[in-house]
Specification:
Number of helices: 13
Distance between the termini: 44 Å
CATH architecture of the largest domain: 3-Layer(bba) Sandwich
Radius of gyration: 22 Å
CATH topology of the largest domain: FAD/NAD(P)-binding domain
Number of domains: 2
CATH class of the largest domain: Alpha Beta
Strand content: 15-25%
Amino acid sequence: METTPRIAIIGAGPGGLICARVLQQHGITATVYDLDRSRTARDQGGTLDMHPDSGQRALGEAGLLDAFLAQARPEGQQMRLVSRDGRILFDALPPEADPAEGNPAEGDPAEGNPEIDRGQLRDLLLDSLTPDTVRWGHKLTRAEALGDGIHRLHFAGGTSADADLAIGADGAWSTVRRLVSDATPRYTGVTFVETGLDDADTRHPRLAELTGQGTMMALDDNRGFVAQRNSRGHIRIYIGMRTDLDWHRHAGLDLTETAAVRAALGREFAGWSPDLLGFITDADSGYTNRPLYALPVPHTWTHTPGVTLLGDAAHLMSPFSGMGANLAMLDGADLARAIIEGRTIDDAVRAYEATLLPRSIQAAEGAAEGIDSAFAPDSATMTLAHMTQHH
């Protein structure tokens, strides 16, 4: 890079933080702006599997692969499919290390896709950055083009900052995306209702055993359960339905009334195994409604000087791709590398987008197919065939 650009990354998710970290390693400063008041302002969600060719590759670029492997849970790769009557149809255990191979060399990716809690991954990335890289409590309200690729970023509360490159890492409802695209996320037709089990092995041994050490799915007739091991004995539960966006309002439900929501979900899953229904009746927390959205496929944009996107801002897709966070981190690492190696910011962004857009389309197409097959009348048969083919 011939000059020192002013780089603003909007959003302190995995993709934005990886981008800032790789840039800092090469002496390039980037400022990350996030709307949260602090790093602990909200729960970061469930667990992520890091793929060798994307998430782990990005962590390697950032010099953080060994730190990730020290916290990762290889056992979390177990994938189990259960029928609606509680029978285990498919159970894929994680790959076991070959004793003859010894331990992987420093910086080598792990075999398979080991899991890590989202919060642990975010802390790892935040702790790797120089102090004050992240400016908390900065909600972007609009971005103003000043010419020559420069944008003035306006934040709630009246502050602003000018940037030679504004990177939209600001998620599904990205404000930066409006500079390059009119696309908005659309409801997929599927809603998750999230809840959880605490100290599951002790307090809920039957449900813990049914879940296994990784992810358990029971999918049939446009409905399903996804139970996912997190660290510290917690199991995060997603109760999924193909339903109207306002299903709870149509049912006259207040989502804060736990007993009423529990009864309504019980009616949705009438006839399912009592063990599976335990994921509804025995939950320790309340219920959070999470409708799933995705950007139109394909989502592309015309190159705009001084601005680009990564992660969900660029390619929001359903979680049934398993690629969202992995792609976001690969995006961040690739963009940083392009900036480091590019002659100008504009050259760097053009090179990055030439790689980003085709792979995003491919992944988003797969995610759309994945959610359509997971929530279909014959989803149990389709999911079993898919798992058998890919494991």
